[in-house]
Write a structure and sequence with these properties.
The chain has 140 residues and is mainly alpha-helical. The chain has helices at 9-18, 24-37, 40-50, 57-69, 73-86, 93-106, 111-122, 130-139. The protein has two domains: 1-86, no CATH class; 93-140. Helix content is 70%, strand content 0%. It is globular and about 50 Å long.
Amino acid sequence: MGLPEGHLYELYIHEYLVDFNLDWRRLRPFLYRCAELGHVSYMETAVRYVVDHLSYVPMLFELAEQLYSEGKQEACIPLYRSVAESEKLQHSERLALSQYRLFSIGLSNDQSNNLTLAIQFELFVQRLDEPYQFDALKTI
């Protein structure tokens, strides 16, 4: 067809993820491929439909951790945000680790941005495991 890779992803989101029953076996490869191609906006759109189904939150977190370990930090952001929003009222380790990852990914040379990130993350430092706490406090 001569179209670039990912050209029909928006149609895929609406045809298979929204209109049909949501299925992780379809969603996970789609999110992973979007991460590989750098289509973070499609990931954000797809994740918006998943957030309503709390049973998918642990799987989104696992995928985010995998992508983070592979160095795909930009692709992790919508996944970590959705996990953090879904578990906002809980005191889970996933919430704290998601906030830590968002904090570490967002750090830059802009000191005012870093201050904002540190203030948002400060509430979650005590909920992390000790190795992550040490790294976070060292960074702050």
